[in-house]
Each structure stands twice: as C-alpha cells, then as structure tokens.
Specification:
Elements lengths: L2 H17 L9 E4 L6 H13 L3 E5 L8 E5 L6 E5 L5 E5 L14 E3 L2 E3 L6 E3 L4 E3 L3 H4 L11 E2 L1 E4 L2 E4 L9 H5 L3 H7 L5 E10 L3 H6 L7 H4 L8 E11 L2 E8 L15 H4 E7 L3 E6 L2 E10 L2 E13 L1 H4 L3 H31 L5 E4 L4 H13 L11
Antiparallel strand pairs: 1-20, 2-12, 3-4, 3-6, 4-5, 5-10, 7-8, 8-9, 11-12, 13-19, 14-15, 15-16, 16-17, 17-18, 18-19
C-alpha cells in the first residue's frame, strides 16, 4: 500500500476515534435467512462460484521452490499444483489418465515426478506422461496425448489462481477490481508459508464470510481477546468491484499521533482485511498474512469448510519466529472458537425457520456489499436499502 494511502486511512481512523463516528452505509438492509438454508440456492452457488469461477488456492509461498507441489480438492475436483523445474506455476487435474485414480495423495511437499499408486503410471511436474510400466504388455499408447489434464493457472501479486474448468480463463487484474496496484506494493510473493488449519463447521459458507464483515461485535464477543488490541466499531471501508477493503483500528494507533507521518505504517496502527469475491479473506498483520478460504459442503447448506493458512514476512520474523507463529495460531483459534461459534449458532437460528431475516446495520457496510454481490452474480434482486 502506498504511503500516501496509508496516511490517509490512518487519519480517517483517528478522526472516527476523536468524533465517535464510524463508516455509514446510509441505512439498513434485511437479509432473508433462507439464503443460509436453501438447498436450491446452495446448488446454484456451488455451480456459479466454485465449479465455474477462478479459485484462489493459496499464495506463492505454498510453492516455495522448483519441484514443490500442493494438492487441493476444496471445489469439487482434485487439483495438483506445482512449481516446475523452471519455476513456473502449473496446475493439473490430479487424476491418472489410465484408470482415473488420484495420483498425488500428500497435501504438499517436493517432488519432480508423480507416480499413480494404482499402476505406477508416472508424470513429470510439467504434466507429461514419462513412464508406463510394462508398456509392451499394456499396449503402445501415444504418451503426448495421455499427460495430466492441464487447468488454467495464474500466479500474480503473491496469489495462486486455478480455474476448475480446463477451458476456463483467468484474468487476475479483472478479478481484483482495482486492487491490483495496491496488492503489488505489498510484495506478498516474498512471504514464507508457516502452517495452517481446517475448520469443518455447522454453518453456511456465507455466514463464515459474514463474521469478517464488521467490528461492531469486538467489544462483546471478543472482549477478552481481540478487544484488548482493537478499537471495536471503528473502521475504514472501500469497495473495489466485487471486492472490498476494511481497515480495522488497532489500539496502537494512539502511539502514532506524536510521530511524524513519514514514520507511519498502516500495520502499526491498523489491520487491513481484504475480501476477494466470492470466498476469500486476506488478513494483513505486521508479521504477515492470514488467508481464509471458505467453501460450502456440497449438498448441505448448513455446513462449510474453512481453510486457514499462515504466511510470515521473513524479515520481521527473523528474530522471533516462534512468537509470531503462536500469534498467528491464536488469531486462527479466535476465528474458530469465537466468530465461527456464534455463526454456527446463527445457522441454528436460521434453520429454525422462525426468523425470516437478519438485519445489517448502517455500521456494517461490508455485509451489505457481500450479499448484494452474491445476489447480483446469481441474477437475484438486491437487498433494498432502508433509510433510517
């Protein structure tokens, strides 16, 4: 983020603190609770947002060196992502061309060749079929036509995108909706992967996203955790197409007031959170990034799986990697044990069928935006703004 933008945003937060104000959506919106429970809607979301849309599968740090690989199956197909011997990011359907068996079963590692566990057909990290045991017995085949099925893959601004459709297209700049110049300044390609977690929860995937949509809840839900470090109900908010950026207010912002603006840094006084349509949260701290990817469980609107990944800034962590790792894990645990716990409670409320809608307040513009972008993509009418 450019220094002028950092100063601008920090000044807005200070002004909110001084005046007791916050972002204002201009009214409230009522969101039907059936969007969290409807099987038909869940099916449409799965086809539109996951099977038919480019997916962020991680960050560049997930493939740190040539020969490294990553496997994912979060959006309905098994994917093998690799950094080939020349350092190029590639993605393939992780399925053998012989009998359709999943080729690589490990979640990540380093490997130049991938051998199917069924009959040992072997593929290079460029997807080429390089070995067929007892080929003289099997019958001669054209190896050039039997490599792993390639999937569209793009690496940019520190992110890895894969399209589930072999004929799909990926345009990262268009997907980011104006955030690309800002993402480039973060230099996230230099981060180091440092572990992750998975939260399989009884809540709709949109409820998982909703938990990141406001800081109104901080003084209550997080009174013994995040409220010790954040001012609740204070933020900046900007929309970038289908995406947005929230700037949460750290209590340490007060330490910047007596320092020259040339020394201000956005992560010293605030906590940027980027939402990338449809299911990604990028949480940016002084030590690095926590990436949250929420996926629906096909066939069950009331269940979702969130993949949490931690990435460290190697320079900041050089002195105390253990302490930084613990802080990231604590943040992840708060998401699971506090945010997602109340979201699971909201799921039960929605499933009761007795609460017809939830209300998004004037101080919760991200929730207005989330849901109207989902609805627009599905051809649904927007939630109307109720002026209050």
């Amino acid at each position: 983020m450019r220094s002028t933008e950092q100063v601008r945003l920090l000044k807005i937060l200070m002004d909110h603190l001084d005046k007791g104000t916050n972002v204002d959506a201009g009214g409230i919106r009522r969101n039907p609770t059936e969007v969290y429970t409807c099987p038909e809607l869940a099916s449409r979301e799965w086809e539109t947002f996951f099977k038919g849309y480019p997916q962020v599968i991680g960050m560049s740090a997930d493939l740190p060196v040539p020969g490294s690989f990553l496997t994912v199956s979060d959006f309905g197909i098994p994917v093998l992502a690799v950094r080939d011997d020349e350092g190029t990011f590639r993605a393939f359907l992780n399925v053998c061309r012989h009998r359709g068996t999943v080729v690589e079963t490990e979640p990540r590692g380093e490997r130049r060749k991938f051998s199917c566990p069924f009959h040992a057909w072997t593929y290079s990290n460029r997807g080429e079929l390089v070995a067929v045991p007892k080929e003289d017995h099997f019958g001669k085949i054209d190896r050039s036509c039997h490599g792993l099925v390639p999937l569209p893959a793009e690496e940019r601004y520190g992110f890895l995108w894969v399209h589930p459709d072999p004929d799909g297209a990926i345009d990262p700049d268009a997907l980011l909706g104006g955030l690309a110049p800002e993402f480039e300044t973060w230099n996230w390609g230099r981060l180091t992967y440092s572990g992750g977690d998975q939260y399989d929860m009884r809540l709709n995937w949109k409820l998982a996203m909703d938990t990141f949509g406001e800081t109104y809840h901080f003084p209550v839900l997080h009174r013994n955790t995040l409220a010790n470090f954040f001012y609740g109900n204070v933020q900046c908010y900007d929309i970038f197409g289908r995406n947005h950026r929230m700037i949460l207010c750290l209590r340490d912002i007060d330490l910047l007031r007596n320092r020259p603006e040339s020394e201000w840094h956005i992560t010293a006084g605030s906590f940027p959170v980027y939402y990338l349509f449809p299911n990604i949260q990028v949480n940016v701290g002084e030590s690095g990034v926590t990436l949250v990817r929420a996926y629906p469980a096909p066939g069950d609107p009331g269940r979702s799986i969130s993949e949490i990944s931690f990435y460290f800034d190697p320079d900041i962590l050089a002195g105390s990697p253990q302490r930084a790792a613990e802080r990231f894990q604590q943040f992840g645990n708060i998401i699971r044990d506090e945010d997602y716990a109340v979201a699971a409670s909201a799921q039960r409320g929605a499933e009761s069928g007795l609460l017809k809608y939830a209300t998004f307040g004037r101080n919760e513009p991200a929730l207005h935006h989330y849901h109207n972008t989902y609805r627009a993509a599905l051809g649904m009418e927007p939630l109307p703004l109720i002026d209050t």
